[in-house]
Design a protein that fits this description.
38% strand, 10-stranded mixed β-sheet, Immunoglobulin-like, 2 domains, mainly beta, binds copper (II) ion, elongated, 1 helix, 165 residues
C-alpha cells in the first residue's frame, strides 16, 4: 500500500465512523427498529399511475384508505416533505407511520423514515433519498401505518428528478 492509498483508507474509515455516529445520534435516520408485530398486515393498492409528487395519491383496501403526498420536486440528497393522511371515516387507526424507499432489483441501503403524527390529523415528516450510482431515478415508496392490531402497507412507485449539478 502506498501513501495515497493509506490516506484514502483513513479517510474512508473516518467517513464510515462519522455516518455510524450520526445515525446512532438520530434514530430517525435509521427508522424504527423492526418491532415484532403479531397483528394482521393489510395490503392496500395505490392508485396506478399516480405519483405522489406535489399531489396526494390514494391507496385503498378493505379498511378504507389513505393518501401519500411528497413535495413537488424530489431530488437525491435534498430533504423533502412527506404527508400521510388516512381518508376521513376510514377504519385505519394508526399510531405510527413509516416510509421506506427502495429500488426494484437494486440494493440502495436502508432508507427508512419515521413520519410523526401531525397537528390536524395524519402524519408529516421529512425524508431524503440517496444518489443512485447507475443514474436510475425510479423509486418505490413503501408506507407502513401501524395500529394496535393491524398494520397497513402500500407501495407507491414514482420517478425522482436527477441530481442538481
Ligand atoms: Cu439505484
Amino acid at each position: 500500500m502506498n501513501m495515497q492509498q493509506a490516506r484514502w483508507m483513513i479517510l474512508v474509515f473516518f467517513a464510515v465512523a462519522l455516518v455510524g455516529y450520526l445515525a446512532s445520534r438520530n434514530p430517525a435516520l435509521l427508522g424504527q427498529p423492526d418491532e415484532p408485530f403479531s397483528g394482521e398486515v393489510v395490503e392496500l393498492r395505490a392508485e396506478s399511475g399516480c405519483e405522489p409528487l406535489g399531489r396526494a395519491c390514494p391507496a385503498t383496501g378493505e379498511d378504507g384508505g389513505f393518501t401519500l403526498r411528497f413535495s413537488e420536486g424530489v431530488r437525491p440528497l435534498e430533504p423533502f416533505e412527506v404527508r400521510i393522511r388516512p381518508a376521513p371515516g376510514s377504519g385505519i387507526e394508526a399510531q405510527r407511520a413509516m416510509v421506506e424507499f427502495e429500488m426494484t432489483g437494486m440494493d440502495m441501503g436502508i432508507n427508512r423514515f419515521r413520519v410523526e403524527p401531525a397537528a390536524g390529523g395524519g402524519f408529516a415528516g421529512q425524508a431524503v433519498i440517496p444518489v443512485c450510482t447507475t443514474g436510475r431515478t425510479d423509486w418505490v415508496a413503501t408506507v407502513t401505518l401501524s395500529g394496535t392490531e393491524r398494520m397497513w402497507v402500500a407501495r407507491f412507485p414514482f420517478e425522482a428528478q436527477s441530481r442538481q449539478r
